[in-house]
Design goal:
Blueprint (H helix, E strand, L loop, with lengths): L6 H5 L2 H9 L33 H7 L7 E3 L10 E3 L5 E4 L5 H13 L11 H4 L5 H6 L2 E7 L1 H9 L9 E7 L10 E3 H7 L2 E5 L2 E2 L4 E2 L10 H10 L14 E7 L5 E4 L11 E7 L2 E5 L9 E5 L4 E4 L8 E6 L9 H6 L6 H7 L3 E7 L3
Antiparallel strand pairs: 1-2, 2-3, 3-15, 4-5, 4-6, 7-10, 8-9, 10-17, 11-16, 12-15, 12-17, 13-14, 13-16
């Protein structure tokens, strides 16, 4: 349900109109065309009217009567404020669920540990398994394509006919490749090209299902523990959330996530636990069809969203993130990541967003 069979019809839906309303547009830079013809892209809202965007942090700070259609969820044994939409059962918003220190921890893990094999990323299909990508980027290394003598030797031993070339990729110092004619890509560029990584049971994007035959590790204990704790407001009474998979999404300054439904897990009564890190974004929550007008809300670093039950059937997406226009939003992160060891991570998160979605598959 990520796409529509009729693209023209999809362009006319209420959800698509909302995406266009909040999307960050690039200024035109074509010969013979004025840049003034492009849609606005500057400032906090990029020219968009943000007055209708729900701000749960502002509601929490005001501590007064809630707007129509928004409620509070009181949950025994859960010590954080939880908001909900009365017409979207199963959707819960936990503002500021993570401390600054916890946010920094999960940002580091998302860049250093989560892309590590056997976890797959969007880069795997191109370069194969890549280990220690963050370390390579911090050390200004480059990824080069090279011959694999071990495989070639085995082919010769097996009397393989014909001329066969086998390639693999490895990180090397950029200085060592001067004058060499190898296909190469800077590790820093590869980090910026990260769009997703998968933890636990591996999701096959081409088939849109979980492939249990793929090598995988279980969800890291600390992440599983966090997800279990945060899932409490959305769990059926007496049941415990069982984290079995996670998809980590990486957003650059102009990236967006189109409207879709997460429908590949067996039991929709169990929530998706969605953790936001880095730059603020606009999150759209619609209905069971794209024709229903979605509600827009701000998601900030440290916020957690739960989607279970009826909410699992709702279209949702991220039309834009906010970067350098409002660094005050992540000033606490910037301060804590300003040590020498986190310089690269700090530079990355200043104009990026990371979203960790933890799921119970079965």
């Amino acid at each position: 349900m990520y796409g529509a069979s009729d693209p023209t019809a999809a362009e006319r839906t209420a959800f698509r109109c909302a995406e266009k309303q909040y999307k960050l547009y690039k200024p035109l830079n074509l010969k013979g065309r004025s840049r003034s013809r492009s849609k606005p892209s500057g400032g906090e809202g990029g020219g968009a009217d943000l007055s209708a965007v729900v701000d749960f942090h502002a509601l929490l700070a005001a501590d007064g009567e809630l707007p129509a259609g928004i409620g509070r969820r009181d949950c025994a044994g859960f010590d954080r404020p939880v908001f909900c939409f009365l017409d979207r059962p199963g959707f819960y918003f936990i503002p500021g669920a993570l401390s600054t220190a916890e946010q920094c921890c999960w940002i580091r893990e998302s860049l250093k540990t989560f892309p590590q094999p056997p976890n797959r990323t969007n880069l795997t299909a191109i370069y194969g398994s890549i280990s220690d990508l963050l370390i390579a980027a911090e050390n200004q290394k480059i990824l080069v394509e090279a011959e694999n003598p071990d495989i070639q030797e085995r082919n010769e031993q097996n009397n393989c006919g014909g001329k066969m070339e086998y390639k693999y990729f490895k990180f090397v110092d950029s200085e060592s490749q001067k004058g060499e004619e190898h296909r190469s890509t800077a590790a820093t560029t590869l980090v910026r090209k990260l769009r997703w990584s998968t933890l636990g049971l591996q999701f096959d994007w081409s088939k849109r299902n979980y492939d249990v035959s793929l090598p995988h590790n279980k969800i890291p204990d600390a992440l599983a523990s966090l997800a279990k704790k945060m899932a409490i407001p959305a769990m059926p009474s007496g049941e415990e959330f069982k984290p079995e998979a996670a998809i980590v999404n990486y957003y650059g300054p102009r990236d967006m996530l189109g409207g879709h439904v997460d429908d590949m897990e067996a039991d929709w009564t169990k929530p998706i636990v969605s953790i936001s890190l880095g730059c603020k974004c606009i999150f759209l929550l619609g209905g069971k069809t794209r024709d229903e007008v979605p509600t827009a809300m701000f998601l900030r670093s440290g916020d957690i969203v739960l989607m279970a039950g009826v909410a699992r059937e709702c279209f949702h997406g991220v039309p834009r993130i906010f970067t350098e226009s409002d660094q005050q939003e992540i000033s606490a992160l910037i301060s804590q990541l300003s040590s020498g060891d986190d310089v690269f991570i700090l530079d990355y998160i200043k104009n990026s967003r990371i979203n960790i979605n933890v799921r119970q598959v079965y």
